[in-house]
Predict the structure.
Amino acid sequence: MFNRMKSYKVAAVPGDGIGPEVCEATIKVVQAALSPAHQIEFIDYPAGAKTYTDTGVAFPESTMEGCRSADAILHGASGVPGVLYPDGTEAGQDFCLKLRFALDLYANVRPIRLYDGVESPLKGKTEIDYVIVRENTEGIYSARGGGNLLRSEVATDTMVITRNGVERIVRFAAELARQRNGAPRDGKRRVTICDKANVLRSFAFFRKVAEETLEQYPGIEVDYALVDAATVHLIERPEHYDVIVCENLIGDIISDLGAATVGGMGMSVSAEIGVNNGFFQASHGSAPELAGKGIANPVATVLSGANMLEWLGQRHADEPLTAAAGRIRQAVEMVLRERRAPTRDLGGEASTADCTGAIIQAL
């Protein structure tokens, strides 16, 4: 029987610093995991600090259109400290921030998992496996470009929290909790609402709407954490957490904290999901001090690429893509567990190419 080759187009935005290196590594791994019956065309698009320096535009309209029309988007990293707009904000951040709002990528999903073979700086903690679900289009970040600066004396940015925004991110978190095996400590499927509801009216509203939404999920335990307390709990008892749902800025901060407990930013996987689009990158920065040295850890971007394949497979009812995502994860787990090619941030001496090659060999 004739089997039609399934093909997809992915907008690849390498970006700045180590972005091109980890993006290239991920493309190699993804292509190695695919069967001959599948073809993914990676189309490069420019964006970021270097693009701004070269052209005066950080996020070209042609890149936006390419991302909008693609089946998925894969990103390396963007932004270079010192490459700034006149208002003092980083030019390179435009790509991620504008893309989120333009494509309504409302769910930022950041898994925090300690893999066998990776040592946590938390003494005695071996069971760390939770997911931070960060509302991605509202909160304080929605003020970017729209805040006020008055005579270089007063600056204001406005927090935006809407009922619809909270309801849909909490539903996303609850559905994710239903799919997981619960918190490592007790196996309970749990959604923790992380906020600062004791101080700010906007966060009190976030909590109220979240509680109302979670009433529709009787099998999910509802938990609460004020963000300042959460920074302590994620260190002292990370095994308590299953899924954490929060506002944009809070999610940005605690996901970096979480990454530090499971091997660092080189292990910081991310997926940004909307109704019609998916954007996949590691949540580490561009690390310009490592750029060009061939020593960046590609694991976070490779695992983000696996998430991309899984999302495409689910979206298009293409089970072999989902299976390919699973093979990539198994290969990465094997390489980490057996410490075949640990990069310097994981206590080894392997190069980016060595680590990528080891993953492909494990596939």
